[in-house]
Amino acid sequence: MNTKIQPYQFNFIRKQANILLQAHLSVNDKNTIKTLQAIVLEKINEQFGTDKDALQPLLDGFLEAATSKPRLEHYLEGLKEAVIPFDPPSKQQLTKLFKKTKKLKIPEWETMDLRDYTFYSWNDSGKQQKFIIASIDGQLVGVSGTISPTTQKGICPICHETSEVAMFLSKVKESGDGMYTKRGNYICYDSEKCNHNIERRDELEAFVQNVKFMK
Predict the structure, then answer these.
(1) Helical H runs in the chain?
(2) Which residues form the Elongation factor G-binding protein C-terminal treble-clef zinc-finger domain (predicted)?
(3) Mean pLDDT of the 134-153 span
(4) What does the DSSP assignment read for 105-121?
(5) Rounded Cα–Cα distance for residues 77 and 163 (Å)
(6) CA geometry: angle at 41 spanning 35 and 43, to 5°?
(7) C-alpha–C-alpha distance, residues 185 and 202, integer Å
(8) Residue 215 pLDDT more than 60?
(9) Dihedrals φ, ψ of 147, to 5°?
(10) Domains assigned to the chain
(11) How many CA atoms lie within 13 Å of 65's alpha carbon, on the beta-carbon side?
């Protein structure tokens, strides 16, 4: 299969499929199901925009798969094969991204299914720090900052889902005079869950731009 999708696009299709599955399990009216199917397919087409025609081969069997949990699990296993994995940085690249950080933790990339990650992030609870790696406009960007050890229920600005969020703050140089300011927001404390929930890149890119670069 030549068509490839990003991890966040897989998340979007999975969520829409689960919406259909729940409808099949709880709704008996066929017209209601057909209407929901049309709405879901329209949302998928809107999500993929100009790439929607290339996506069609991946949607073969989509509606049928969403009629039962075993069928859907089988379909999603096949769809996962089309996901482009996160491209991990080398140790040298990672050290360069966070050159001010001593004793930087190096992720064990070989133990991960990199198809699960739109971005990669981890917490250093000992230092109360969070590290984020993302590709922005084709360039690998690293963001680090403090992460609060306390969490609360809230909507994460990266994945737009309700989760346990914590305040993340990063120092940003505002101008050439060496002055810094702190920027941040309440984001998912658990970045594994954030990656599972994220369905678009726009919010991720906006967040990284805000906490990394001078305006």
Answers:
(1) 7-26, 30-48, 52-55, 62-65, 69-80, 91-97, 191-197, 202-212
(2) 100-205
(3) 93
(4) PPP-GGGS-GGG-SSEE
(5) 26
(6) 105
(7) 16
(8) no
(9) -125, 130
(10) 7-82 (1.20.1280.250), 91-211 (no CATH)
(11) 18
**Cβ-based neighbour number of residue 7 at 10 Å:** 23
pLDDT tens-digit map of 81-122 = 999 999 999 999 999 999 888 888 889 999 999 999 999 999
Q: What is the pTM of this model?
A: 0.91
Q: Is 100 exposed, middle or buried (0-12, 13-18, 19+ CB in 10 A)?
A: exposed
Q: What is the mean pLDDT of residues 2-24?
A: 94
In the numeric block, the tokens 């790696």 are attached to: 133
Looking up tokens 């658990």, which residue turns up? 190
pLDDT score for 55: 87
> Residue type for 35, please?
T
| Residues whose CB falls within 8 Å of the CB of residue 77, separated by 6 or more in sequence, listed in order | none
Instruction: Return d(Cα 14, Cα 137) in angstroms, integer.
Output: 26
Q: Find out whether 8 and 203 touch, Cβ atoms under 8 Å.
A: no
**Rounded Cα distance, 189 and 154, in Å:** 11
Radius of gyration of the chain (CA): 20
